[in-house]
């Protein structure tokens, strides 16, 4: 898939944008328009593999009892400058992040698995601290911003994950354009990534299910368009060189029936095909999810269905958020070959009951019919006899409570408690996990 047309489109739209925008830009200075934000994140995570040892990553064994636990604290500082005056403005984005171990041990730090709270060395010990420091230069021309350096893309095909102690980042070039009302165009070409537990900003690419891949770059392009106040559409494509081409189409609908009542719906579709040297073998996967629900006052109930029509796991970059499927939840993605799944979700906003900032969510998903009979060698899963796994099933139940302080000195301080339970046949683990996340954002400038 070629991404040059998307980049060219962004440039053409930028050149056609009104000159008045540039006049407004001249009023903002490099220092005057700068912002400095510091996020304190306190992160507790435990995961109990009920049926044996925790699965390891990169062949390093985790605790034999299958129990992983870690408590850590992060300080995440981000500085975004304004732009120099003029039609073409220049600026800088920079960040410094520090992760500190508060409590964990060699027998329960999760090893080198998807637990991923603190870096773990070859001796099996978690590091006491680690850090990330990086930045990007940026140039603004009318409504187009180009960034070069360490970036945090947010698209359905390439997205920097932020579900662990420190966020994930990528290194390369990104372009964003907002010239037309309701339309945001994005494109980029990235040649390295940095996962949540890595201090190295130039790591090679790793996928969640296929593992490390020898790929020189990933490129993406597409856009989000708000058709109206109630309807939005997204269309994106990406290429992980010599691994895959991915294409995404998504829609979201909210249809008010009254001041208190609204119907909600959505649809997500991915197609993933092998590309170039086929570093993860041959595959051609279609996976989709659909949602239908109702919102009444403080209550939202939604039913979703998801299905993978391919013969292999639907894969994505490791620990990234680039899987916009309704049934990709706290632990399970429900994305195994031929797997079909249903999920029921309930949300409650307690502001309507006099407690603004307090919310509650619970969901239950069940998948069935996972079949590895025709999976390629990179995604194949077999039973103890060496036969491909078939007729695999799983379910997951999640509960989440979150409170955000609304006023006072602790305004925007948030506390989130997340609990997940999942049970499965041979292809997945039975586990229970708890995450407690406290975040306190500070705006310094």
UniProtKB/TrEMBL annotation:
InterPro entries: OM_porin_bac (IPR005318), Porin_dom_sf (IPR023614). The keyword Cell inner membrane does not apply. Keywords: Signal, Transport. GO terms for molecular function: porin activity. The keyword Signal applies. This is OprD family porin. Belongs to the outer membrane porin (Opr) (TC 1.B.25) family. GO terms for cellular component: membrane. The lineage of its organism: Bacteria, Pseudomonadati, Pseudomonadota, Gammaproteobacteria, Pseudomonadales. It comes from the Bacteria. Residues 1-22 form the signal peptide. Gene3D superfamilies: Porin (2.40.160.10).
């Amino acid at each position: 898939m070629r991404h040059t047309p998307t980049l060219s489109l962004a440039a053409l739209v930028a050149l056609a944008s009104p000159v008045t925008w540039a006049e407004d830009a001249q009023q903002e200075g490099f220092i005057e328009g700068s912002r400095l934000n510091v996020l304190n994140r306190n992160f507790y995570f435990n995961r109990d593999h009920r049926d044996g040892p925790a699965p390891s990553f990169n062949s390093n064994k985790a605790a034999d009892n299958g129990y992983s636990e870690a408590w850590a604290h992060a300080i995440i500082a981000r500085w975004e400058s304004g732009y120099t005056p003029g039609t073409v403005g220049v600026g800088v984005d920079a960040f410094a992040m520090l992760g500190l171990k508060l409590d964990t041990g060699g027998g329960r730090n999760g090893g080198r698995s998807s637990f991923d709270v603190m870096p773990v060395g070859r001796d099996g010990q978690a590091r006491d601290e680690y850090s990330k420091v990086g930045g990007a230069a940026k140039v603004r021309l009318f409504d187009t911003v180009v960034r070069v350096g360490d970036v945090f893309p947010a698209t359905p095909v390439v997205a920097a994950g932020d579900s662990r102690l420190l966020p994930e980042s990528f290194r390369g070039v990104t372009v964003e354009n907002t010239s037309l009302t309701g339309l945001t165009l994005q494109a980029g070409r990235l040649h390295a990534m940095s996962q949540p537990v890595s201090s190295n900003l130039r790591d090679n690419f790793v996928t969640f299910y296929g593992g490390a891949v020898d790929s020189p770059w990933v490129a993406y392009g597409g856009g989000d368009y708000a058709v109206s106040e109630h309807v939005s559409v997204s269309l994106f494509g990406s290429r992980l060189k010599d691994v895959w081409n991915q294409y995404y189409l998504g829609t979201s609908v909210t249809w008010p029936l009254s001041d208190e009542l609204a119907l909600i719906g959505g649809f997500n579709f991915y197609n993933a095909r092998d590309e170039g040297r086929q570093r993860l073998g041959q595959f051609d996967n279609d996976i989709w999810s659909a949602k239908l629900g109702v919102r009444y006052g403080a209550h939202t109930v939604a039913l979703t269905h998801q299905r993978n029509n391919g013969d292999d796991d639907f894969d994505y970059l490791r620990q990234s958020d680039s899987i916009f499927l309704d049934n990709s939840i706290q632990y399970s993605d429900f994305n195994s070959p031929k797997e079909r799944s249903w999920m029921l979700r309930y949300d409650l906003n307690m502001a309507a009951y006099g407690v603004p900032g307090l919310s509650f969510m619970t969901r239950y998903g069940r998948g069935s019919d996972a079949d590895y009979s025709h999976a390629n060698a990179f995604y194949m899963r077999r039973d103890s006899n060496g036969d491909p796994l078939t007729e695999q099933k799983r379910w997951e139940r999640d509960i989440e409570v979150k409170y955000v302080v609304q006023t006072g000195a602790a305004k925007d301080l948030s506390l989130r408690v997340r609990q997940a339970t999942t049970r499965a046949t041979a292809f997945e683990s039975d586990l229970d996990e708890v995450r407690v996340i406290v975040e306190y954002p500070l705006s310094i400038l």
